[in-house]
Amino acid sequence: MNDQPTDSTDMIDGKTSRSICNAVGERLQQNLRPDFSRLPEQLRHLMDALRQQDAQTREHQPYRR
């Protein structure tokens, strides 16, 4: 069994790969999002701040292979 693509047309570039990964990650976050409505207001605020910080960090990280 060979894990390598047999044809170069089967390969995708890094930018496309990263885009696909980000889209899948966003969809998972939307579908698997926990219910934060039961948390105290201060904790909800902190969770929102962490989410924003995480999103900003992902925007500024270059694609790594």
Q: How would you describe the overall organization of this protein?
A:
This protein is mostly helical and 65 residues long. The chain has a domain at 39-65. It has helices at residues 14-31, 41-60. The mean pLDDT is 80.
C-alpha Rg, in Å? Answer: 18 Å
The SSE order reads: HH
Mean pLDDT level: 80
In percent terms, what proportion of residues is strand? under 5%
What's the overall geometry? Answer: elongated
Low-pLDDT runs of 5+ residues are none
Strand count, sense and barrel status of the largest sheet are: none
The overall strand count is 0
Helix/strand/pairing category: mainly alpha
| Helical percentage | 55-70%
Q: Helical stretch count?
A: 2
Q: Kindly, what is the distance between the CA atoms of the first and last residues, rounded to a whole number of angstroms?
A: 23 Å
Question: Which key phrases capture this entry?
Answer:
65 residues, mainly alpha, 2 helices
Topology:
Layout: H1 14-31, H2 41-60
Q: How do you describe this structure in short?
A:
The model has no long low-confidence stretch (mean pLDDT 80). It is built from two helices and no strands. The chain is mostly helical and 65 residues long.
